[in-house]
């Protein structure tokens, strides 16, 4: 006696498996893209030594990347909502591959500016698109599970990737020949593999019969819960300020003020920040949102105090501990922000909502770091870090007030 299985039941399981496999392929590509974006972090000291770059020059090169990210988020961060996740993500990875090739063959300052600008343009397309893609692949692959896997993997790929990049490039720069070429050769191959991985993943967006009229990204807090979005964006802004410091000026502080010039060590410091962020994210998944926010803000505040203290007393150990604690706090805040916005936004505008969140995040990456670089022209590194720490503590206090108001309103 045979049992007839409905066609819908026969096709649902393979479709779920395809989306589940696609989830991990996109996660790999997301991690690779974000890791590539921080590959230059431990190499800046080499550029400074060989070409005489000042701290301000390094900040300007970093600023070119951040400008590229913000521009991309404004112009293309939302188009995957109707153009398709795969198409936009493959295009973004192709742009990153071109950036890697420029780094590989041309080392003059104009080349660094162009390569970092292209890198920023690619990352701006990747962040919102890959995050929305992972959310939809997770839901289709495991429709009966919660958002825990999506939140953990998406933020680990994003933040963990930012930490893996400088660790890999720092190791290669320390122990392999051609330190300004080998890391980019390795990531060129990885980016090409990522393009293949995304091409094998199932699309999650049904393209409309008539393409919507193009418009730049709307920067708005109106994504289901205005106050909740503003509170999430404040946490993301603060988080990326910590991450911006780790990927731009920290290596120079470690090599100069703290007298630790090793290339691997420079990459390891950035890895500690992002590794602590990823670890904190993975261990706070079950915590209530209010508890996570409070823990994240406390971590950022305590870490910044320890980091500034390390600079003041020329203690690398205190600086490293402060970086780890601040990174852990930033990671928890950013994970909460992504989860909050992904959950509140309707599917049709999820890419747009996440693009707005990342736009605010990367403004946090640009402005404080650029201000710190400019300040280095007029005051010493220790003084500029004291002022930076004071601003960070004020920002943390403001974010805490916003989060408390949202919780009080929701109670």
From TrEMBL:
PROSITE patterns membership = MFS
Concerning Pfam families, the annotation shows: MFS_1
Q: TM spans, by residue?
A: 21-47, 53-76, 88-109, 115-134, 155-178, 184-205, 226-249, 261-280, 292-310, 316-334, 354-379, 385-403
Q: Which keywords fit this entry according to its UniProt record?
A: Cell membrane, Membrane, Transmembrane, Transmembrane helix, Transport
The organism's superkingdom is given as Bacteria
Task: Report domain Major facilitator superfamily (MFS) profile positions.
Answer: 21-407
Principal place of residence: membrane
**Where in or outside the cell is it found?**
Cell membrane
Return the protein name: MFS transporter
């Amino acid at each position: 006696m045979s049992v007839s299985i409905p066609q819908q039941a026969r096709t649902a399981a393979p479709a779920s498996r395809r989306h589940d496999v696609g989830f991990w392929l996109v996660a790999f590509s997301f991690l690779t893209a974000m890791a590539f974006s921080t590959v230059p972090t431990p190499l800046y000291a080499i550029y400074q030594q060989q070409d005489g770059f000042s701290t301000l020059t390094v900040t300007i090169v970093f600023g070119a990347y951040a400008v590229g990210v913000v521009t991309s988020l404004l112009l293309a961060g939302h188009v995957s909502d109707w153009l398709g996740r795969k198409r936009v993500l493959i295009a973004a990875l192709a742009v990153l591959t071109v950036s890697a090739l420029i780094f590989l063959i041309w080392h003059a300052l104009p080349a660094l500016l162009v390569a970092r600008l292209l890198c920023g343009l690619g990352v701006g397309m990747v962040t919102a698109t890959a995050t929305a893609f992972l959310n939809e692949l997770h839901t289709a692959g495991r429709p009966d599970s919660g958002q825990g896997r999506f939140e953990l993997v998406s933020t680990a790929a994003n933040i963990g990737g930012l930490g893996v990049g400088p660790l890999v490039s720092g190791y290669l720069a320390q122990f392999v020949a051609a330190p300004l070429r080998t890391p980019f050769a390795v990531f060129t191959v990885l980016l090409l593999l990522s393009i293949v991985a995304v091409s094998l993943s199932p699309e999650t967006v049904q393209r409309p019969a008539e393409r919507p009229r193009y418009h730049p990204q709307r920067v708005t807090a109106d994504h289901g819960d205005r106050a909740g979005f503003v509170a999430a964006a404040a946490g993301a802004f603060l988080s990326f300020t910590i991450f911006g410091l780790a990927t731009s000026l920290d290596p120079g502080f470690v090599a100069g003020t703290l007298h630790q010039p090793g290339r691997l060590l420079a990459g390891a410091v950035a890895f500690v920040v992002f590794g602590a962020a990823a670890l904190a994210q993975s261990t706070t998944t079950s915590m209530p949102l209010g508890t996570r926010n409070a823990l994240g803000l406390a971590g950022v505040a305590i870490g910044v105090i320890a980091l500034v203290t390390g600079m003041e007393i020329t203690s690398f150990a205190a600086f490293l501990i402060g970086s780890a604690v601040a990174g852990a706090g930033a990671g928890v805040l950013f994970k909460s922000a992504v989860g909050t916005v992904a959950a509140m936004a309707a599917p049709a505008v999820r890419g747009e909502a996440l693009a707005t969140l990342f736009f605010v995040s990367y403004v946090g990456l640009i402005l404080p770091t650029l201000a710190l670089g400019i300040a280095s022209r007029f005051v010493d590194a220790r003084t500029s870090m004291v002022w930076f720490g004071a601003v960070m503590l004020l920002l943390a206090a403001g974010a805490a007030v916003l989060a408390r108001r949202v919780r009080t309103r929701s109670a």
